[in-house]
Amino acid sequence: MTRKIGDLAGGRDLVTIHRADLIDVLVRAIPAECLRTGTRVTGVGCGNHGRGEIVTDGDTARYDLVVAADGVHSVVRQQIWDGEGTVERTGVSAWRWIVDGPPPDFVGQVWGIRGEFGILPLAGNRTYAFAGAQRGESLAHFADWPEPVSQLVANADPTRIIENELLEIRTPKLLTRGKVALIGDAAHAMRPHLGLGAALAIEDAVTLAAYADDLAGYTKARRHRVRTVQWISRQMSTVVMPDNRSLAAVRDVVVRLTPDILALSVFGVINRWRPKPIERH
Questions:
Q1: Is the N or C terminus of the chain more exposed, i.e. has fewer CB atoms within 10 Å?
Q2: pTM above 0.90, yes or no
């Protein structure tokens, strides 16, 4: 079954951007002296002295706030949130790659049996392709899918394909410990079916800035939302990649009979989030 991106997004306000381009935009928005790269963090303290601590190559530095944005395998979460944030395997394999050429006429998602495929336009006359499949399947699973899927798979450069298993974590009860805060995948890694991973990380950052003087408030403001999105995304696996033909047939009928306004209501609830204003001191 195919769904155009415009249908899913309500036909407006949709922008796709390569992760590297987004990072470049964010980096250029801050002073150069505020950014330090290539430093390996070997230890973290939650702030016995009223400040967060970071250990790098044996040197300890203290900060007003330490923000852990180090992904699903977060070193900070493992050290400070011992026993929480357990990494869970989904059994879903994912493939992502960039095509140096314009997107085909169809741009959107194709939902099939035990897999899904997506096609998105990127700046610079490029195309982003992604696929996900249930346990035991390979990229060859999509070789006989309708065009343009099969063509994108056949023409994919193996050296440019990123392949890994999708992972989730159990979101910790508290997103802060002392002067250390979790954001993004370090706090709530989830399946990507709603395409909100990076967006939620940005929401976290904006909310954390608003609650910098009330870190307990950060958990209250974020935990319910991220757990809700995490749950919806997990249920979406059944919709976009059912295990068998019968379930796929039922899915297709239900989706066709569901009015767009009702289908989009789920996304509307998610997208109506608004940040708390950041107070200037």
A1: C
A2: no
